[in-house]
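Propose amino acids for all 127 sites.
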């Protein structure tokens, strides 16, 4: 079973932080844990339209885009919505294997994110 994580710089009124975000396929909104929301200056509210500025900061950096956010008391990591996944130029190749590509990459080389093998997480940056 695989997961796709990408490095994103994300910020609001108080601060900008670099964070490893999980691509949450099927999600309508980007989900933010309360502690992270507080660190970057988001008001505790359920839905925050256009409250985040995000840019991909892997070996390729993208322009910042605005994104909606939902603060969730039950989530512990930042989850990227389908909409933000597309706006950041992340192309999902094989979600089950954690394989993706980036639109900004001229050769669109496949990359592998975190994949779970026998209960252990391993990280591979490219195939």
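Proposal:
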């Amino acid at each position: 079973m695989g997961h796709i994580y990408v490095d994103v710089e994300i910020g609001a009124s108080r601060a900008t932080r670099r964070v490893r975000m999980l691509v949450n396929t099927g999600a309508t909104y980007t989900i933010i844990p309360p502690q992270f929301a507080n660190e970057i200056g988001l008001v505790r509210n359920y839905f925050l339209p256009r409250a985040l500025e995000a840019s991909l900061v892997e070996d390729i950096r993208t322009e910042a885009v605005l994104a909606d956010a939902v603060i969730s008391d039950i989530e512990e990591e930042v989850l990227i919505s389908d909409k933000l996944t597309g706006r950041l130029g992340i192309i999902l190749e094989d979600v089950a294997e954690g394989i993706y590509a980036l639109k900004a990459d001229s050769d669109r080389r496949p990359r592998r994110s975190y994949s779970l093998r026998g209960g252990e997480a391993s990280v591979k940056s490219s195939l």
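The chain has one domain: 5-122. The two ends are 17 Å apart (CA to CA).
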